[in-house]
Amino acid sequence: MQYPLNANRSSKLKHIVRNPFLYAMAVPGLLFFLVFSYFPIYGIMIAFKDYNFAKGITGSKWVGFKNFDYFFTSDDFWVILRNTLMLNILFIVFTTAAAVVIALMFNEIRNKYFKRISQSFIFLPYFMSWIVVGMIVQSLFGGEEPMINAWLQNMGFEPINWMFESKLWPFILTVIRVWQGAGYLSIIFLAAITGISEDLYEAARIDGASKMQIVLRITLPLLVPTIMIMTLLAVGKIFNGDFAMIYAIIGDNSLLYPTTDVIDTFVFRSMRQLHDFGMSSAVGLFQSVMGLIFVIAANWVTRRVSKESALF
Amino acid sequence: MRLKKWFGATTTTILASSLMLAGCGGKTETGGNEGKSPTPTNTESSVPAPKATVALKAYFPGDKPAGFDDVLQAVNDKLKADNIGASLNINFLPWTDYGNAVSVKMSAGEDFDMYLDAPWLSMNQMIASNSLMELDAMVAERPELKASIPDEMWEYNKFDGKIMGIPLGTTQGQLYGLLIRRDLREKYGLPELQTLDDLEKFLYTVKEKEKDIKPFVINGIKADKLPFILSDSANLALDEVLEIGVNMFAYSIKDKKVVSQWASPMIADAYERVTKYYKDGILSKNIAQEQNAETLFKQGKYAATYYAADGVEGLKYSEMLQDGSDKLEVFVPNGDKAKPYTAFQQWNFLCIPTSSKHADLAMDVANWLSVKENHDLMEYGIQGKDWEPVGDTSYKVLSSYSFPGYVLTWRPTLNRTPDTMMPDDKKWFDFSTNPANFTLSPTAGFNFNAEKVKTEYAKITPLHDSVFLPLSQGVLPADKGKATLDEKMASLGGQKVIDEIQAQIEAVTSGK
Amino acid sequence: MRQKQSAADRTFTIFAYSFILLFTLFCLFPFLLMIIGSFTDEGELIAHGYTLFPQKLSLDAYKAVLQSDVLFNGYAVTIFITAVGALSALCISAMLGYSLANKRNVLQTPFLIFCYLPMLFSGGIIPFYIVVSQWLQLQNSVWVLILTLLCQPFLVFLLVSFFRTIPEELEEAARIDGANEMRVFFQIMIPISKPILASVGLFYALNYWNDWFMGLMFVDNEKLFPLQLILRRMVSNMEAAKNLIPAAAAIAVTPPTYGVRMATTVLTIGPIVLLYPMLQKYFVKGLTVGAVKG
Asked: In this structure, are B110 and B186 located in the same domain?
């Protein structure tokens, strides 16, 4: 069948008229985006304006790139940038890996009750607000007698002063992030695995493949498009630090900033006295633009390798 | 006496409202005098025609107090009975989101009539963008409101010479000290604390002799006040004004210059003390993360904690005295000669957005609330049910109704203190409500507007949390902390901010 | 030959069970700490932090939360918007996703980009507020809580990626048989997409269930506050009361701020955790196989 994607405009129009439902289906969703995302998008201009409450966004004075100054000329610019990217890469890689493994393992579980109960439990961390998580982390690692230190001492190790050691925290944060997000993500992978045709498994079993081989040669490869899309979607946000998580856990403990301070927490602290919408939006715009560039690049690479794994 | 006042208030309000009605002419007011052609009230008739009630919308931070619906109903009933022509529709927004939510509503031009704003919220931006109404004229016309707030408070809480919000406060300045466990002091036979050396002796004794009780606790965030307390110059009006309304900076009267607080020679001894106390374990190792100082002190785990004579801090601990003991006392360094600087600056204002269509009515209500009886109704609840008067200046709490007075009703002349307030606390609180006990700061009237140096100010703001606080907590030793601050200030363009503050202060001082 | 397979396979299965068990415990542990924390006396929480075996239990946190007279109202509102919202959102997103994923769609690429950009770019809260409350006049109604979350780009793309995996032959075969587009979609595509539809529906439900922001910005009427907003207000104001201005002098108890945070989490998780097992029955092998051959 010929798909007239590259046809000229009139035959495209004809196609639309001939297949109204195909296009009409998309209308409600597109309308939503138009009204709730695109109508307000003129607000991006705030990044370039000296925002005045009374004059509104359109009436405020244009200041060009001045709102970006405090961020780009900051002493810690490179550190913050590095932290944001590094933490996000760690988060994406480990959460995805964990979620994939979990989904693959779940596929092997036959006991209905075990499956249902454990699926519900691994989902729970997603519901705990970061503030609550932060309090528990404080209990485990901070205060006068951190719980983890008690365990370490029981096992014969030396206690560590966690709140003072910045180098350990990227790893601690990654573990926490995997704990919170892997369960949620694994549902998506599990749904994708469920869609794999039973025929393929049958054929493999007849050929004498072991379970491990089936997983590695059939399930995993067929999961790759989904993994790629999830990753691409995450890459778009790679310049956006997880403010809720990091602020709730690290808070104002400046000793840990060298490895955990990200763009969003930095902006938050800088704006504490000023509350300037223009200046905070400016950095937000920077994050969005950089994210877009990275996604387009990553998407282009993915298209070359496997077309159906790409985003667009 | 009270009756006369009430009558006077009502007449004034009616006259004021009629003037307003007359001035309105043919304007249609939504929800107001629809369909009625406005006629000036006949001052000869003894009973003026009852006015239609306009619902005034207000946004305040916090939670709806228990029993608020009843109290608000009583307030609105009384407003109607007093023919003010307005009723209150009060909406509470959660504290954490208040600032943002209210800014967004203001920017969108939403229609509401009053809200809480402050320099530490977005008041400066609102003023700069002409989003707040000037209230000078309206205040002048409302005697109860004007009288309920001392002249100094009105005068020094102006922005660019204009009243942009009703200042809400009970004290006239800051007085700092420490709350001490008297029982422990007496246990070790130490005399009443008069000097900082006495205090030091007490703290070290506790550290040495008490196993389960530690010397001192304070929340990490409050620690920037420690250098003010632990200095020989505490609470005195000497060379420098430490609190000028901008974090980390002070004003030297001698040199007429803006200086950094950490470089001030006046409190240099405090930084040495703090460093020493931290090293010796008087201040807890984890002071930076402490958030529960009040609760821990109440549990009896500490011998001393932070105290401020603001009528609020001391009340947090009154439950410790419920068993009838008097185990708490307040130590105010230099208490006998205290006359601290004050700019009479208040930190909370009732503001009216320019988009409000009922500013006059809103001010009428504010005036109405400045009458003792009405003030008490809103702030303490229904008499007999929620509270009982104890004399003129105190009260006994009967229910769990607790209105956040700092958003609407605080008036220095009308304030009542709970009867559970400890005597030391009451003594220092009363001290703080009297303007005569303070020295007028040369920077009074100065309110920092960071517009021109936004970028640099944004760059140095993080230093407060990351370096200045640890320095004040003793976590960063004095010499190292000061050096880091000097270095970073310079490299981040802090001098530009300092120059701007200087210029603005000079504008204020030369204008006098 | 069979024996060897069995051993390797058995080890693998054992490994699978152990891994899941360990991860489940890993997820469960902090959660248990939290539940126990919600029943622990506040004073102890502050002094000693969280523990699995507290010395002093207390129901203060739950008492504080449950005494809110608007709480049950909040449950009602939230259940309504979650049910209506999640179903509507699922329908709209599924239709959009199918349209975008279909290879016959000539406007595919522009549409995809149109739907992706909102994920990265936003005009900010102020224009959004103006659009919703002034242009659309949606404030103070239950619809503002539903309409504003109706379509999430992330979930739409999830559906797109799934619909792409459906073999083209399936659709062709159906159309050759004479079915029109609508029938193809509803009678064939939907049934085989049950797992992904269940997941997306669940995620939308969670989105609605957890949201407090829309309520905060647009709803002043107490009776329309969603559950999460009520709880957030409670916690936020309790924190403020502790640090800024204390409640009236007579109140002797330490407000159980920590405990309340835990209790509110427990109260909100309950219902939604029950939803998940109900949806698990959709996670069964699809009918793709039979569909093509048949």
From this structure: no
